[in-house]
Write a structure and sequence with these properties.
heterodimer; A: alpha/beta; Rossmann fold; 6-stranded parallel sheet; 4-stranded mixed sheet; 6 helices; globular; B: alpha/beta; Fumarate Reductase Iron-sulfur Protein, Chain B, domain 2; 3 domains; 50% helix
C-alpha cells in the first residue's frame, strides 16, 4: 500500500522531471462561464422558475399551489422534514398522510418527500441540497416526487457563484430536474433511481 | 484482403446496430454544438481554457497529489494508492473484508471497467452490482460497454426486454419506460441491502479535497444515501487545482457529453456524512489508481490525460460511427480510446496499434473536445511509435517504392511524367488490393503529376 504510494509518486516525479517548463495555472475571470444573456436584467426567482421547467422540473410559489398539484396527481402519502411540517401542515387538508420520520424499510410507501434546499441556481434551474439542510438523504431521493423548499434569499445567479458558495458542508448535491436516462435507444425517460418529479417550492 | 482488426469488426457490425449508433451519435453531437454556440459568447475560448486548467494539473501532479491527499485526510477520508489494476481490486476487497461486507452497489466508473473490478469481487464471493441502467444491462448480459457515456448504444429495446424476461424482471415488454421502471424497483432494494457504495470521480479539487460526481439517473446519490461505506476509485489524472475551475469544467461536461446544460446530479463530496445526517456513509475511502497513467504522463502523449470522459469525440467521429465501440477491443473506444487504450495497454501495445491508424485525421475530435486535446497529433505520434517498434500493419500498401522515389529528385521527376500513363490504365485492373478496394467505390481523378512544378517555375520566372 505505502509502497504503491511511493512508487506512484516516484514515477510521477520521473515523468515530469524532463519538462523544462510546466503549463502555468491559467488566471481567468469566471464571467467566461456565465450565460449572461440568460441572466441579464432578470428577477432571479422568476428566472429560476422558468429554468427549472426547462429541465423537466416544476416550481410553485405558494404552498397552496403545491398541495393542489400533489392532490391532482393522487400523491397523498409522503414524508416531510419535521422542521418544515408545522409551517406546511395547515395547507395540507384532509386526505393527506404525512410522516415526519422516514422509514427506510418502506421506501415505496412514500409518494412524495419534502425537504429543505440549501439554495438554488437560477441560471440552470438547479436545486442545491446539502447535509445541513436535508433532514434525510433518502427522503429527498426515494419518493417519486421530491419537493425542495427554496428560500428566495438563497438563490445564486450562476454556476461560478454557486461553486464559490459551496461552503463547508461535506455533501452538496445539485439537482437539475428529475432523475433521467436515455440509455435505451436514446429515448428520454424520467424517474430512474431518484425522483420522477422534481419540484421547488419557492418561499 | 488482409486488414486491421478494427476493420474486421466494422465489416461484421450489423447494419441495424450501425444505423442506430450513427443516428444517436449524430443527434447528440448536433445538440451539443447548438447548446454551446447558442449560449456562450466564445465557446472555443472556454474549451481552450479548460484544456489549460487540466494541462496544468497533470503537469503538476507531483505537488497536487500530496496536496489532495492531505485535504482528503483532513476531511475524514482514508486515502489509498494502487499502482496496478490488481492492486486497486485488492484495495477494494481489503476494505470490504475489514468491514465484513459482502454486498457492493456501484455507480458508473470507467476505472472500475479498466480494472475489471466486478469480475474480481465476484470471484471473492462479493456481490458487485452495477446500478447505472446501461451498465446494469451490460452486466446481466455479460457484455461490454460500447460507449463511454452510453454503454448500451449498441443494443435495442427488444434485446433488453428479452434480457429482463430471462432475468426474471418481468414478462417481455420492450417499452423503455417499463424497462426503466422495472430496473428502478429492482435496484432500490439492492441499494438498501448493500454494505458499500462504490463510485468513481469526475473531478477532485486539490484545493478542498472535494470529489465531484456527475450522473443523470441518481444512482450514485442512492449509493451514498443507502450505504454506510463509500469507496471512490479515482484515476490520478482527475485532479483539478481549484474549486473555481469546476464551474468551467462542469459547464462543458454536460453540454459535451449529453447535450445538457448541467447533468441532473452533480455531487460535491467532501468526506463521510455529517454527524446530524441520518443517511449515508460513515466511512469514506479514496483509492487513487495509476494503472499505466504515469507511463502516459512520461510519454509524448500526456495531453490525453486531460480527458474528462464526455464522449463527444466518439459522437463526432466518422470511424466510431461506422465501427461502434466493441471494435476498439478495450474499455475506452473512439478517438480518445485510439490514443489512450494502446498507451494503457503497456506490453500489449502491438495488439492495439491498429487503433491510431483507424483515422482519416479529419480533426473533428479535436474541434469538439471540451479540453482541447490535439487527438490527431497524438494519433500520429502513436503511428510513429508502432513503426519504430516494427509492429506489423496488415492491409497497409507497401511504401518502399514511394520512399525510393521521394528521396531521388531525378527519379521523382521521371515518375511524375511517367505517371500520365495511369490515365490510360483502368484502375480496377491494377493488382494492388488496397487500390482495388478503394477504387470499388470511387473514381481516381485524372493524373496531373508535374503540374504544380510547372506552375511554380512559371511563377518564379515572372
Amino acid at each position: 500500500m505505502s509502497d504503491d504510494r511511493e512508487a506512484i509518486f516516484s514515477r510521477v516525479r520521473g515523468a515530469l522531471a524532463p519538462l523544462r517548463v510546466r503549463a502555468p495555472l491559467p488566471q481567468y475571470d469566471t464571467e467566461i462561464a456565465v450565460l449572461r444573456q440568460v441572466l441579464a436584467g432578470r428577477d432571479l426567482a422568476e428566472l429560476f422558475g422558468e429554468r427549472i421547467r426547462k429541465v423537466g422540473g416544476l416550481a410553485f410559489f405558494t404552498p397552496a399551489a403545491l398541495v393542489a398539484h400533489l392532490r391532482t396527481g393522487g400523491r397523498l402519502h409522503g414524508y416531510c422534514d419535521p422542521v418544515l411540517w408545522p409551517g406546511l401542515a395547515p395547507h395540507f387538508g384532509a386526505g393527506f398522510q404525512v410522516e415526519t420520520a422516514f422509514d427506510r424499510t418502506r421506501v415505496d410507501d412514500y409518494a412524495f418527500g419534502i425537504t429543505r434546499a440549501a439554495g438554488a441556481i437560477a441560471e440552470t434551474g438547479t436545486i442545491i441540497l446539502n447535509d445541513a439542510a436535508t433532514s434525510c438523504r433518502l427522503g429527498a431521493l426515494a419518493p417519486w416526487v421530491h419537493v425542495a423548499v427554496v428560500e428566495r434569499s438563497s438563490l445564486f445567479a450562476d454556476l461560478p457563484q454557486a461553486v464559490a458558495g459551496l461552503g463547508d458542508d461535506r455533501n452538496v448535491v445539485w439537482c437539475t430536474g428529475p432523475s433521467k436516462t436515455a440509455d435505451v435507444e436514446g429515448i428520454l425517460i424520467e424517474g430512474v433511481h431518484g425522483p420522477g418529479e422534481q419540484i421547488a417550492l419557492v418561499v | 484482403m488482409p486488414s486491421q482488426p478494427i476493420d474486421q469488426f466494422a465489416r461484421e457490425l450489423s447494419p441495424e446496430t450501425r444505423a442506430s449508433v450513427y443516428q444517436s451519435t449524430k443527434t447528440t453531437h448536433e445538440k451539443r454544438t447548438k447548446l454551446l454556440f447558442d449560449q456562450f459568447a466564445d465557446p472555443n475560448r472556454l474549451r481552450t481554457l479548460a484544456g489549460e486548467i487540466k494541462q496544468h494539473a497533470i503537469e503538476n501532479l507531483d505537488t497536487l497529489l500530496p496536496q489532495v491527499e492531505a485535504r482528503l485526510t483532513g476531511n475524514g477520508a482514508k486515502v489509498h494508492w494502487a499502482s496496478t489494476a490488481q492492486g486497486a481490486c485488492e484495495a477494494v476487497l481489503r476494505i470490504m473484508q475489514a468491514r465484513g461486507a459482502t454486498k457492493l452497489v456501484k455507480a458508473k466508473t470507467m476505472v472500475s471497467e479498466e480494472i475489471e473490478l466486478a469480475h474480481f469481487l465476484e470471484g471473492h464471493g462479493i456481490e458487485a452490482l452495477e446500478t447505472d441502467l446501461g451498465e446494469f444491462i451490460v452486466q446481466i448480459d455479460h457484455d461490454h460497454p460500447s460507449h463511454i457515456v452510453r454503454p448500451i448504444i449498441h443494443k435495442n429495446r427488444r434485446e433488453i426486454a428479452r434480457s429482463f424476461e430471462r432475468e426474471g424482471l418481468g414478462a417481455y415488454d420492450d417499452d423503455p419506460g417499463t424497462i426503466t421502471r422495472r430496473a428502478r424497483h429492482y435496484l432500490r432494494h439492492k441499494y438498501l441491502a448493500a454494505d458499500v457504495g462504490l463510485t468513481g470521480a469526475n473531478f477532485v479539487s486539490a484545493e478542498s479535497g472535494r470529489i465531484v460526481l456527475v450522473t443523470n439517473e441518481g444512482n450514485s446519490r442512492f449509493c451514498l444515501a443507502a450505504t454506510k461505506c463509500h469507496i471512490a476509485l479515482v484515476g490520478i489524472e482527475k485532479i483539478v487545482p481549484r474549486d473555481r475551475d469546476l464551474a468551467v469544467l462542469l459547464n462543458l461536461l454536460g453540454r459535451s457529453g449529453t447535450a445538457q446544460e448541467l447533468t441532473v446530479y452533480t455531487e460535491f463530496i467532501g468526506g463521510p456524512k455529517s454527524a446530524a445526517q441520518p443517511d449515508g456513509p460513515e466511512e469514506m475511502h479514496v483509492i487513487f489508481v495509476d494503472n499505466g497513467r504515469t507511463e502516459v504522463l512520461a510519454s509524448e502523449c500526456r495531453e490525453i490525460l486531460r480527458c474528462i470522459r464526455c464522449g463527444a469525440c466518439l459522437n463526432v467521429c466518422p470511424v466510431y460511427r461506422q465501427a461502434s465501440g466493441h471494435a476498439y477491443r478495450s474499455v475506452y473506444p473512439g478517438p480518445v480510446g485510439a490514443v489512450l487504450s494502446p498507451l494503457l495497454a503497456g506490453e500489449r501495445f502491438p495488439q492495439l496499434a491498429d487503433l491510431p491508424k483507424a483515422s482519416s485525421l479529419c480533426g473533428a475530435c479535436n474541434e469538439v473536445c471540451p479540453v482541447n486535446i490535439p487527438i490527431p497529433d497524438l494519433l500520429l505520434r502513436l503511428r510513429q511509435r508502432a513503426k519504430e517498434e516494427n509492429v506489423p500493419s496488415p492491409g497497409t500498401p507497401p511504401m518502399g517504392a514511394w520512399a525510393l522515389l521521394a528521396s531521388q529528385p531525378t527519379a521523382w521527376r521521371a515518375a511524375l511524367a511517367g505517371g500520365r500513363l495511369m490515365n490510360h490504365v483502368p484502375t480496377k485492373l491494377i493488382p494492388v488490393p488496397a487500390l482495388q478496394a478503394w477504387a470499388a467505390q470511387r473514381e481516381l481523378p485524372a493524373w496531373r503529376g508535374g503540374e504544380f512544378r510547372k506552375w511554380l517555375r512559371q511563377r518564379r520566372s515572372r
